[in-house]
Amino acid sequence: MISAVNIATTVTLALVLTLLTTSSCVTAQAEPAPTRAFQRPATVPHPESNPYTPGKFALGRKLFFDPRLSRDNDISCATCHNPAHGWEDGRALAVGSGQAVHERHSPTLENLAWAPALLWDGRAPTLESQVWFPLTAHDEMAQDVRELMAELGADQSYVEHFRDVFPERGISLITLSAAIATFEREIVSG
Ligand code: HEC
User: Fold this and answer.
1) Which pathway does UniProt place it in (predicted)?
2) Ligand 1 within 6 A of 81 CB?
3) 106 C-alpha to ligand 1 centroid (Å)
């Protein structure tokens, strides 16, 4: 005897089986074959508000490798972002001024010209605004920015370099950050 319930069960089972087979076929077919390997763009984008110049790049590089940027004049940006370690420091957690252990790992600085946001939680929107974080963080460079400006202002080679690159503006946190950001944008993977 064929009951209505039996018919309904058979039809439902047949439907489920059809759906399962069809959907697995669709998934298998939808897998796109990779066509080419990732390649970074050939030119580095610099923002209109902070255009590239060779002098600004050179100033940024000098500042990036200068330990005077830290409170105790012992740590430069390159201590934690070391080109010999892929622009990191080879440690699990960063170690800052006064041997303070940071709660986070120092990330590489490669290809940041294309980064939509910076820091592990994305709280810095641009490379220019990011510079303030490591300069002042107690577990990074622990610097007093006014003291740093006075220190750089007492060095004639910095006074001249800043004047050449920023004729109207001279040494300030903004010009220092602009120069470092220009240098950083040019750090790209091979
Ligand atoms: C004591 C080690 C240390 C020093 C010194 C240091 N950094 Fe970092 N840097 C870090 C750590 C740790 C992070 C991740 C921090 C976070 O996400 O909160 C970081 C993150 C960054 C990032 C974000 C990278 C990304 O992928 O989002 C940039 C850019 C950066 N640092 C640039 C600099 C510059 C410029 C200097 C010098 C002015 C500097 N750092 C000095 C440890 C350091």
Assistant:
1) One-carbon metabolism; methylamine degradation
2) yes
3) 6
Name the DSSP letter for residue 107. P
User: Residue 75: CB within 6 Å of ligand 1?
Assistant: yes
| Residue keyed to tokens 């699990």 | 92
Kindly give the confidence (pLDDT) of every residue in the chain, 190 residues in length, as a single tens digit, with 9 standing for 90 and above: 444 445 455 545 444 444 444 444 444 567 776 667 778 899 999 999 999 999 999 999 999 999 999 999 999 999 999 999 999 999 999 999 989 999 999 999 999 999 999 999 999 999 999 999 999 999 999 999 999 999 999 999 999 999 999 999 999 999 999 999 999 999 999 8
152 lines ligand 1 (CB under 6 A): no
For residue 120, the ligand 1 atom closest to its alpha carbon is: 17
Q: pTM (2 decimals)? A: 0.85
DSSP string, 69-102: GSTTS---HHHHSBGGGTTB-SSSS-B-GGGPBP
Token pair of 121 as six digits:
């939680």
Domains belonging to the chain, first-starting first, are 54-185 (1.10.760.10)
**Which structure tokens are listed for 190?**
């091979």
Q: H helices within 43-92, ranges in order?
A: 54-64, 77-80
d(CA 179, CA 57): 6
